[in-house]
Predict the 3D structure of the following.
Amino acid sequence: MADQSAPIGIFDSGIGGLTVAAAIHQLLPHENLIYVGDTAHFPYGDKSAGLIEQYGIGIAQYLLERKCKMIVIACNTASAYAFKAVQAVAGKDFPVVNVIDPAAEAIAKQFPQGKIGLIATRGTVSSGIYPRKIKKQAPKAEVTSLATPLLAPMIEEGFFNNKISRTIIHSYLEKKSLQGIEAIILGCTHYPLIRPEIESFYKGSITVFDSAELVAQKVQNELRHSNLLSEGDEAKMEFYVSDYTESFAASAGYFFPEKVELKKLDLW
Ligand code: DGL
């Protein structure tokens, strides 16, 4: 049985999951966190389901060895393809949180008959997981999905809030399939970093959803439910990457200014 001071393990293919880690840290500042960015295998979005599952299992095993009390899959692509495998490795009663369920639930509730757009990696879009989960809860909702494979690598390389990112984002959002939507899901944990640019494209005419805060709330509820909320003082944060990249170091510092000491993890 895990104790309350045990860390929460969080992983993504790169910096995207830091948007989720930051939201968790903001809501639960006493929680110790271990973050793994699998930069050696970035991007997950174009990999096969089998490989993503394998990466997810490897990282989950490491987080379990580190005695984490919960695993948060802070990546939509890995949530789509590796959630079941990670849950199986961790055991059926171990809390594993993915980033898709909280978002799908919130959207189905807020737009039960809405026309909803999804932008995400190729992998997440071709899994069909968002439309499936939303329509299960809101059968009259309509979900149109667009794969936007350039966005995560662009963000990972530090291209956001500039001319290049604006041009790429606009050319995706202008696509026919996304016209007439009432809400858009940022179905990749990298995308909150370009949320201001997406919002400025729509100028407040539609609702923009990202899952970071919803996931943080879910983490809080699950920990409370299992009586695992930390009561410690200062949280300890550890950040690991499977391959060192300058862009990851810069972005980790952007989210957690005083706390980042980046370590290389030899998982593979
Ligand atoms: N941040 C990830 C996601 O939410 C993946 C980006 C990638 O590795 O392609 O899907």
In short: The domain at 8-98+213-264 is CATH 3.40.50.1860 (Rossmann fold). The radius of gyration is 18 Å. Residues 49-65 form the longest helix (17 residues).
